[in-house]
Design a protein that fits this description.
- The structure is a single chain.
- The chain is α/β, with parallel strands linked by helices.
- The chain has one domain: Maf protein.
- Helices cover 31% and strands 26% of the residues.
- It is built from 6 helices and 7 strands; from the N terminus they run E-H-E-H-E-E-H-E-E-H-E-H-H.
- Strands 1, 2, 3, 4, 5, 6 and 7 form a 7-stranded mixed β-sheet that branches.
- Helix 1 links the parallel strand 1 and strand 2.
- The mean pLDDT is 94.
């Protein structure tokens, strides 16, 4: 891995997760269109967007290792991105209530060895959400700017009954996979 690591994301959660691997990246967000294409599958979508981010940013950082990621919530093959407003967040959370959905994160690394990509999927099961809990959570403000309208690393954790697979994947960057792609020692906790 090159000493100069660039994260093609403005996500503070991804910066924090990389810090857990001992990586302190330069943050240089990519400006790419993240609109899903018509009938685009969730796995194809996250891989495409993460690849677009990495390819956009690597042009500005010759010789660097560029890391890009994209996360989406997938329920019944439907992509739940970041809600536009509280009303859309409410609708998304009602769809997720008492159900299991998939969280996909694509990670793309471009460095002197070339371009590598991986997609990690975790299963997240929500508690049944009554109106009081739903409105309380919407009032926290966490729903905006989050795929699927919730932040599992924040107060949104009370909405979740269980997670199968990588918890850091649900937050936005699967640590074990990212460490492997960067040639670092993976965290010892396999659920990360």
């Amino acid at each position: 891995m090159a000493e100069h690591v660039v994260l093609a994301s403005r996500s503070p959660r991804r910066v924090q997760l990389l810090a857990e691997l001992g990586v302190e990246p330069l943050v240089d967000p990519a400006d790419v269109d993240e609109t899903p294409w018509p009938r685009e599958e969730p796995l194809t979508y996250v891989r495409r967007v993460a690849t677009d981010k990495a390819r956009c940013v690597v042009q500005r950082h010759e010789g660097a290792t560029v890391i890009a990621a994209d996360t989406t919530v997938d329920i019944d093959g439907r992509i739940l991105g970041q809600p536009a407003d509280i009303d859309e967040a409410r609708t998304m959370l009602r769809v997720l209530s008492a159900r299991t959905h998939r969280v996909h994160t694509a990670v793309v690394v471009i460095d002197s060895c070339g371009e590598r990509a991986a997609v990690v999927t975790s299963l997240v099961t929500f508690q049944p959400l009554d109106d009081e809990t739903l409105e309380w959570y919407l009032g926290t403000g966490e729903s905006l700017g989050k795929a699927g309208a919730y932040a599992i690393q924040g107060q949104g954790s009370v909405l979740v009954e269980r997670v199968q697979g990588s918890m850091s994947n649900v937050v936005g960057l699967p640590l074990a996979t990212t460490a492997q792609m960067l040639g670092l020692r993976a965290p010892s906790d396999p659920s990360r």
